[in-house]
Amino acid sequence: MAVSIHPFDTALGAEVRGLDISRPVDEESFAIVNDAYKKHSVLLFRNQELTPQQHIAFSRRFGKLEIHVLDQWCHADHPEILIVSNIKDKDRHIGVPHAGRYWHTDLSYMVAPSRGSLLYAIEIPEQNGRALGDTRFASAVAAYDALSEEIKKRIADLSATFSLAHHRSKLMADGADENPLTAEQQAKVPVAVHKIVQENPLTGRKCLFVNEGHVVEIVGLAQEESRELLAMLSRHVTKPEFVYRHRWQVGDLLMWDNVATQHIAEFDYALPQRRYLLRTTLEGVALA
Length: 288
Fold this sequence. Notes:
By secondary structure, the chain is an alpha+beta fold. It is about 25% helix and about 25% strand.
């Protein structure tokens, strides 16, 4: 079957059909997929059966992979893979238990935020035959384009601080079962500063690069003005007209552009309903 691209009826996203990722992907098929990735920002591959090695091999076609700073949840045999799961081994979480609790972009707190992520579903919680734990994606490109010219001028030269420690503190304040970063982890991810408006390194299109999960404040603004502007921009980028909602199936591989999008997971499930996914993360480039 030839590879084909089927866009969703939303501001972003498309399904790729006719591709078995467990097998080597030829150059022509890869070019089709890579072009679709740049155009649609989120790509879905259904009914995949992948080993960790195959997941990694496909991911590496798009670039070098990150070893996540939260290395306590990296795969024991394949550290390029981050485990995302609510499952416990006795009292220990085997993966990141609260991944996606707030709207965010993966690794936006890095000086060089991730280019993209590839998340593979092995176990998905269900209730009465319905999948739980949906993920919503917002187009930061469509959101920027829809801003008024007045707002675009206001934020054109503004920057914000991004922090993983801030994100962890936010989780703990909201009652999540989390621990602060270790000193070693904190040293790897000091506070980063990025412009609120970014040009996507893949496409050159302008994106609204601000999210509720990792942003601490806008540089140079009074605290109240910063808070109000961040709240307004966060509400804007996640409006329904910019959002695709993904309902997971076992065997889904979902990949997305971490500059062009942000996402949030639904936490409408709990043990004994199990969620187990594996994620690779593409290295990015330093942003302004």
